Amino acid sequence: MRPVLACLILAATLTACASSPSVYAPAGDGDRGYTDTRIEQDRFRVRFASGADMEFDEAESMALRRAAEITLNNGGDWFLVTSRTLDGNDRNPVGVSTGVSISSGSRGRSSRGVGLGLRFDGDAGEKSVSLVILIRSGPLPPDPNAYDARDVLVNLAGP
Fold first, then answer.
1. pLDDT tens readout for residues 89-108
2. Which of 39, 67, 101, 105 could covalently link to 109 via disulfide, CB atoms 3.0 to 4.6 Å apart?
3. DSSP string, 19-69
């Protein structure tokens, strides 16, 4: 029983070390957070990368939030998303599996076994959302890919 307990403690420790929380901030050495690049005068690429603690829709909201900030900082009123790319997966970084087997043989002999498997996947749960946006001013068009920058910030800005 002690080897099983040791494996579970090791799994919990590795999970805690490997999964720092995703926050809305510029991407640092860990590559989580947002980055943005000016492509043309009014066109930007915005990327938000997160870990397993965020769903894809949350990561996309963070990318939209950054796009709204860029729009307002560059004198625009709204932005148009011309390209949207989601990359990554929703797998859990640590998986635990168990198995039980019972077999019968000749002369009344039988055997029983219990197994425990652990999976560690460092890339599991990592995801990123990349947007290419065009910054615009004036009335917002009736396009589902057009976003009012002020409304986005009101609705998506966190504490």
1. 665 555 666 777 777 767 76
2. 105
3. -PPP-SSB--TT--EEEEEEEETTEEEEEEEE-TTS-HHHHHHHHHHHHHH
